[in-house]
Amino acid sequence: MSDATTATLHRMVLPEHICPFGVRAKAMLEQAGYDVDDQQLTTREEVDAFMANEGVPTTPVTFIEDTRYATSEALEEFLASSAGS
User: Fold this and answer.
1) Which domain covers residue 33, as residue numbers?
2) Which carries the bigger pLDDT value, residue 44 or residue 3?
3) CA neighbor of 59 nearest in space, from 74, 70, 73
4) Which of 11, 16, 30, 70 is 20 to 30 A from 48 in CA distance terms?
5) pLDDT tens digits, residue range 53-85?
6) Which residues, other chains included, contact 54 with Cβ-Cβ below 8 Å and sequence gap of 6+?
7) Among positive and negative, which fits the CA dihedral 71, 59, 65, 26?
């Protein structure tokens, strides 16, 4: 990626558990050159409300421009397909 673009990442960071998929998503975005707006969900209530509002069963969820990537796997596929473009 030539120009830095902001990606908004919503991920679970609870006192007793940090989601490894969210950590992976953040690392992939940074490696791809994105500025990451890291929106940490720090309580179970925040996580549950976010998932209900977005209609997703899990986190992380990443937004890049107008597109939502609802899993780290979907994000990985997008980043792989856009590499070198």
Assistant:
1) 7-82
2) 44
3) 70
4) 30
5) 999 999 999 999 989 999 999 999 999 998 765
6) 10, 61, 68, 70
7) negative
